[in-house]
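Usage

Read records sequentially. Each one opens with the input sequence:
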Amino acid sequence: MKRVWIAVLVSLAAVAALFVWAPTFVLNTASWGGDVEVERDISFGDDPRLKLDIYHPASARGVLPVVIFFYGGSWQHGDKSIYRFLGASLARAGMVVVIPDYRLYPPVLYPDFLRDSARSVRWTKDNVARFGGDASKLFLAGHSAGAYNAVSLATDRRWLAEVKLDAKADLSGVIGIAGPYDFLPLKDEFLKIIFGPENARPATQPINYVNGDEPPLLLLRPADDTVVDPGNSSRLAKRIEEKGGEALLKTYNHVGHLSIIGTMSPLLSVLAPTKNDLVEFVHQRSMRSTSAAPK
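and closes with the structure output:
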């Protein structure tokens, strides 16, 4: 029996290592299938970078909750094509999934990527019905820097207000995965450039805008994240609760900063129930928003 458990652990470690070294090929190849349709490279802004992909069930009936997912990469790297596995996996769980690109450093700095993220939400709100999505059941989600983007739109009302949206009124919920929300002082030299002068950096932190009137938040984190301090999530959850808002914090012991997002794929789902927790949150809040809608 001991040898069996050792073999299982070795296999899980090998799969996790595979995710680190070849995520695009392995996870995205495994996501192929005719049950999910993909609309690629839809423009939502004037800049050539501002395009998004939409994943939706091929045989969906009725309107589905919508998840806009922002990827990570320290606001310096990333591309929507890397996350086909996530779009397909969540679409199979009964959602319309929108994955936008946003401009990165260089040439842009804070808050340009937040303005891009807000533009993608505006476009989705206006157009997602054409793809089977319910614009009244709109969720934001993100991993790492993308989680910062999603949570920033939920807490700092300026960016959605610029596109004539409101976090409380227009969002059914927000999911942050291994995100930085309270990460001063900065040590990385590139981040110091991206987030501007030191005296202005407190205004870049999502935690400093919490007032208890945010949409419900689900915060998912690895217990031993060596890239983003897991305390970012717990401090944010505590602040929201202190202000009378709703934040659910979940911690996973067998994933790291990269592999936690890989668990959205069936290949790595054994490592943590991240996908199940996200799906449950979306569907429960979708039902809540339906029951709260005026009749």
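Summary fields computed downstream for this record:
- The domain at 2-292 is CATH 3.40.50.1820 (Rossmann fold).
- The longest strand covers residues 133-143.
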